[in-house]
Amino acid sequence: MKNLLVTVVSGGLCLSVAPAKAENLNVLIQAAKKEGAVYSVGMPDDWANWKDTWAQITQKYGLSHRDTDLSSAEELAKFDAEKTNATADIGDVGHTFGPVALQKGLTQPYKPSTWGDIPAWAKDKDGQWVLAYTGTISFITNNQLVKEPPKSWADLLKGKYKVTLGAVGVSARANSAVLAAALARGGDEKNLKPALELFSQLAKQGRLSLIDPSLANLEKGEIEVGILWDFTSLSYRDRIDSKRFTVSIPTDGSVTTGYTTIINKYAKHPNAAKLVREYVLSDAGQVNLARGYARPIRGNVTIPADVQAKLLPASQYRVAKPIRDFAAWEESTKNLPRQWQETVMVNMQ
Fold first, then answer.
1. Please, are residues 91 and 264 in contact by the beta-carbon 8 Å criterion?
2. What CA–CA distance (Å, rounded) separates 118 from 299?
3. What are the start-end ranges of the H helices in the chain?
4. Which tens digits make up the pLDDT trace of 112-140?
């Protein structure tokens, strides 16, 4: 009886909800096919090779798909605002946003069949969120615009180029860039002051850019030095011109964290969303992420040699630290928008 789909009737709408555990994948697959579609947010083609993952899922299971690219905070806001009028089934958010989504009552659980392969720190015990991959904050430098690519956070203050990191307070990646700078300069999850001082100095110098560090802006030459996840930097580098850009992990320190799928509590296609999580955490899904330069969360997946060759040397990651105090970091991210405005943006020229 555990694998029997339960039909809930609410307001004339029938929703078939599969189990929260992958006890019978055939049941889940058939339920997902019946729904026929899955709508995602924050999982665009050019991020962590979602392009191949979506192509395989739609072909293998006959699902139609669309994505709306949003930041982590925007994804949660969308789930919360729309509720039962949901237009999204699944999202991909920064690690710290997973517990926040759970606290807000925006998620529903699903434990994939590979659940036992995933480290305890990388998942909610009930399956409300689970990391699929990790990334490390990196620099990407346009060699045509900057003669000496910065190797460290300290180097940033010595240059004449503009530095771009994106929407601090909104983007999980931009927030993590602030934490990475803090860790490198003696701070921690509770103390972001060293990073705020660094970016404040850049702002006073007129060298902090508010342009989005996107693929298009890099290609157009509007980004001199960008601060992005390593998998994003490497992907952009190779898609545009590998000789045109230098990608590196800051030698004085960085942060490594991950991204988690969250399944919308109000999803119109809940079974399809669960099937997506199942596939993303399968061997094929994990290799897809690696092809997008992300580091798979499962350590027992064999990564092809050609994929390994495109990644940065392991030696560059020795300075990167994981988030150790998640409670403190969660609190800091709540205060960061105000601190950023008061400490950094006030100095923008």
1. yes
2. 8
3. 25-35, 50-61, 72-82, 97-103, 153-156, 172-184, 193-204, 215-219, 230-240, 270-280, 283-291, 305-308, 326-343
4. 999 999 999 899 999 999 999 999 999 99
Per-residue pLDDT tens over the stretch 242-294? 999 999 999 999 999 999 999 999 999 999 999 999 999 999 999 999 999 99
d(CA 188, CA 181): 9
Per-residue confidence (pLDDT) for residue 170, from 0 to 100: 86
d(CA 173, CA 171): 5
What's the pLDDT tens digit per position in 176-187? 999 999 999 999
pTM (2 d.p.): 0.78
331 three-class SS? helix
Q: In this structure, what token pair is assigned to residue 194?
A: 């060293």
Lowest mean pLDDT among 72-76, 171-175, 206-210: 171-175
In angstroms, the CA 61 to CA 81 distance is 30
CA nearest to 214, candidates 223, 225, 205: 223
User: Nearest 5°: phi and psi at 108?
Assistant: -135, 150
Tokens at residue 237, please?
A: 């580098």
SS3 17: strand
How far apart, in Å, are the Cα atoms of 307 and each of 3, 174, 285? 38, 26, 14
At position 116, the amino acid (one-letter code) is G
> What is the full DSSP assignment across 238-260?
HHH-TTTEEEE--TT-EEEEEEE
